[in-house]
Amino acid sequence: MTKSTIGQFRIIGFIEGISYLVLLFIAMPMKYMYENPIPVKIVGMTHGILFILFMMLLLAAAQKHKWSFKFNSLLFIASLVPFGTFFTDKKLKALQTA
């Protein structure tokens, strides 16, 4: 596993993004179309834990690398939008290699 703060943040961002998509496009339709709420409970809890971890790593990386409020806000807002974490990953990768 990568030791850099940005590397860890990117990994959690990717996993959190996947969990969000699974929640929205697999678990939620199963709940409402097939009346099966169990996948939402499982994926929802997992996504919630990953989101909290994502926010903790965002704070840690922002403090360590002295990111601007605007950049932090962009990363936060992107985490709320489906596919958002995948779009911000390119910028994070550039910062990681710099």
What's this entry about, in short?
The chain has 98 residues and is mostly helical.
Tell me what you see in this structure.
By secondary structure, the chain is mainly alpha-helical. The protein has one domain. It contains 4 helices and no strands. Helix 1 runs antiparallel to helix 4, helix 2 packs antiparallel against helix 3 and helix 3 packs antiparallel against helix 4. The chain is elongated. The relative contact order is 0.18. The mean pLDDT is 94.
Q: What general form does the structure show?
A: elongated
- Tell me the helix content: over 70%
| Structure class | mainly alpha
Please indicate the percent range of residues in DSSP E strands (runs of 2 or more). Answer: under 5%
Describe the secondary-structure layout.
Elements: H1 5-34, H2 38-65, H3 69-80, H4 84-97
Based on the model shown, name its key terms.
single chain, 98 residues, mainly alpha, 4 helices, elongated
